[in-house]
Each structure stands twice: as C-alpha cells, then as structure tokens.
Amino acid sequence: MARLNVNIDHVATLRQARRTIEPSVAAAALECEKAGASGITIHLRQDRRHIQDSDAFALKQVVSTYLNIEMAATSEMLEIAEKIVPDAVTLVPESPGEITTEGGLDIVSNFAQVSDAVKVLQKAGIFVSIFIDPVKEQILAAKECSASQIEISTARYAELTLGSRAFHPEGKQLAQEEISRINQAAQDARALGLLVAAGHGLTTRNIKPIAQIREIEEFNIGHHIISRSVFIGLESAVREMLLAINSEI
Ligand code: PXP
C-alpha cells in the first residue's frame, strides 16, 4: 500500500491572498493526518509565495506523521533545513516566475551543487529525495550523489490526461507511453537500491495506472486534494485520494 503525503501549499496560498491568519496550515496538516495521510509535504519556495518559514517551523512541532519539505538546493534553503530538521527534504528545481515546479531537477548538469546539498542534509540526519524526470541518466546521477529516494515527476503524464485529453486516442497512446517510462524509471531506481516516490498533477481520475506500479511507495499530491476540499472538505478529499490510490479496481 503506497503512502500518501498531502502537499498543503495551497492552504497557504489562500491565506497569503489576504496576508491574514486563516486558513491555518497547521490545522490543515492535522486534518490530513486525521483522514489517514502518511505525511505532510510543503514547498518552501525562494519567493515565499505560499508557505512561509514560520509555517515550516510550526509544522515541525505539530506534524506527528512525516514532514517532507521540498526546496531548491541553495545555501539559504539548506540552512533552514538544518534548523528545522524535517523527516525528509525533496530537492526540486526552481525558476523565477514559474507557476509550479516545471519538470524534474537536472542532477546531471548540476551534479556538484546537488551532491553537496545531499551531503549537508544527510549530515543533519535528514532523509533526502530528489525530484527528477523519468530518465535513466538522472536516476544514475541520483544514485551517484547518494540520495535515498527519487520522486518521479508525473507532470507530463498529468498534462496528457487533463480533462478530455484522457479520451482522445492520440492522447491515450502518449499517456500510455509515459506510463511505461515512469514504470521503467521505477524499476531502474529500485534495481539500484533507491526508494521511489511520484507526484505532480495527480488526481483521483488519473492516478490508477501510476498507483499500480508497485515500486512506487509514496505519493506527494497537493493541488487536486486542496481543490476538492473546497467542495467536500479536506478530510473527505484526503480519504477520496487514499481510496483511489489503494482500491484494486
Ligand atoms: N512533488 C513535487 C516535487 C512538487 O513540486 C509538487 C508541487 O509542489 C508536487 C509533488 C505536488 O503536485 P500537485 O500539487 O500537482 O499534486
């Protein structure tokens, strides 16, 4: 049974829209845990557009399951991680002005920076995962820099299955090819002894074929769950996703 970490960035997005005190990110984390989430994920962005440093410190105090902080491999972020000591850090790429993380981290082209970051985090006792595209060279590089886990980006698959594209024959074929790529990446990573997570753009509608890849042991899912929570409440939205991940049908 794969674990679900709920990414609660967009609870902070709503609060930051008014720079006020609600909705509470800490309360959201507790609600997700109550619904059965295995962990909480946040992305502390360099532009601080949603999650603030104070949220990360507060979550370290209240989260009793597993706290995963996504961050860029910069010295500013590493210093914060060393202070908070979350259970895990996921290294992600970040470019100014992007709407969301655009694809995986290019470890191959940034090897020294990424492997130094992995060392700093591991020295602080933090589990390190790296968000990458399902590409063999990147998996080998993740192994070479001693990361414990890779998180496979499902962004392209999500794009191909968005709305009516899921039913278009050409889209279906491309989505199938992307599932094969993700599957192969998961097998390659496990064969190297890396743990495997996946995430980005996953919904209750498109997760099934990805959830069937047994090597994927963890999902990090945010936008869809928080969007659904507007209509059915956060606890129900988390339960709905857990059902989608774990039902065999
Ligand atoms: N994993 C990583 C590395 C991400 O950057 C994000 C988005 O912050 C997610 C998972 C979750 O993606 P989504 O919000 O589309 O579910």
Structure description:
It is built from eleven helices and eight strands. It is of the alpha/beta class and 249 residues long. An eight-stranded parallel barrel has the order 1-2-3-4-5-6-7-8, surrounded by eight helices. α2 (25-34) packs parallel to α3 (53-62) and α10 packs across α11 (234-246). It is globular. The chain starts with a strand and ends with a helix. The mean pLDDT is 96. Pyridoxine-5'-phosphate binds next to β8 and α10.
Q: What proportion of the residues form beta strands (DSSP E)?
A: 15-25%
Bound molecules: pyridoxine-5'-phosphate
Mean pLDDT, to the nearest integer, reads 96
| N-to-C span | 14 Å
Main sheet overview:
8 strands, parallel, barrel
Which class best fits the helix and strand makeup?
alpha/beta
Major beta sheet, strand line-up: 1-2-3-4-5-6-7-8
Low-pLDDT ranges: none
Number of helices: 11
